[in-house]
Amino acid sequence: MYAENLREICTHGFIVVFPFIKSPEGDKNPLTTNTDGEYILHGLSWAVHAASDRSSPLYARADLSRVVVAGHSMGATCSIMASKRLSQGESPAANVTVRLVISQHPGICGPFGPPPWPSTWLPSDLNQVVRHYPLLFTTATNDGAFWPAPHTAEHEIGCVRKAQLNGSAVHGAAVVQFSGDACSEDGVHSPWTDSGHDCPFKTAPEAPWILTALKLYAQQEGRADSACAAMLWGGASDSLMRDSSVAQHLIYPPRRAGNG
């Protein structure tokens, strides 16, 4: 389901580590779940060892000082929780540095969810994340995974507001809800028919912005004078907030020295 977009990301010079909980086949079971970020941390630990293993194709190629933590749906909850754990000092190696967190359609925050806490994230978890890392958080108006559309997106945005990112997002946070038209069911990934919840499977509209954020933070050091920074945080016609596919946005640009 993710293969096309992940291959595209790799063509831009990135290494993608996609952890399974049991196995590619075993993870098709809907009862195979993890929401505390443990398997993202396992994947990161695997990359740490692979980078120093002479028999691995990643030997001396994986730059662990430019790590991006990302996920969709259950994995999006894991991206929040793994990043929180990393921000608190839990790391497989001293040379691992997280540059960016991407959370695509993580569902409804706790304590009630769905799913209820502890199987989901809390607004306080997201607040902790944005105090340490830049954040790109996406959803879609027609996401029907947790409530009938449009209530999943409505509640996700409500959870973000509870997280009080304004004032906490020192490194910048972009929360965007893409339109139902842009994320309409394309039938390509049948039988996965959660409508807008599956928007990250498509090559647009979310994927280009994921790539923009990846380039900015994992390749360009988050440079404020870069074209990617202007597109992600600015207000020009080619910016994220002006994208015609975006139905709603909450964008908190990174704070600059001297700007409070």
Question: Please, could you describe this protein's structure?
Answer:
- The chain has 260 residues and is α/β, with parallel strands linked by helices.
- The chain has one domain: Rossmann fold (3-Layer(aba) Sandwich).
- Helices cover 29% and strands 12% of the residues.
- It has a 5-stranded mixed beta sheet with strand order 1-2-3-4-5, sandwiched between helices.
- Helix 2 crosses helix 3, helix 3 crosses helix 4 (123-130) and helix 6 packs across helix 7.
Kindly list the characteristics that best describe this protein:
alpha/beta; Rossmann fold; 5 strands; 29% helix; 12% strand
What would you say about this model in short?
The protein has 260 residues and is an alpha/beta fold.
Task: Please write out the topology.
Layout: H1 3-10, H2 38-51, E1 67-72, H3 74-87, E2 98-104, H4 123-130, E3 135-140, H5 151-162, E4 173-178, H6 206-218, H7 227-233, E5 246-252
Parallel strand pairs: 1-2, 2-3, 3-4
Antiparallel strand pairs: 4-5
Question: Radius of gyration, rounded?
Answer: 17 Å
Assembly status:
single chain
- Flag low-confidence runs: none
Q: Number of DSSP helices?
A: 7
Shape: globular
Largest sheet: 5 strands, mixed
The CATH architecture term is 3-Layer(aba) Sandwich
Averaged pLDDT, please? 93
User: CATH first level: which class?
Assistant: Alpha Beta
> How many strand elements?
5
The ordered H/E elements are: HHEHEHEHEHHE
Helix content: 25-40%
CATH topology label? Rossmann fold
Structural class: alpha/beta
Distance between the termini: 42 Å
How are the strands of the largest sheet arranged? 1-2-3-4-5
Strand content: 5-15%
Total domain units: 1
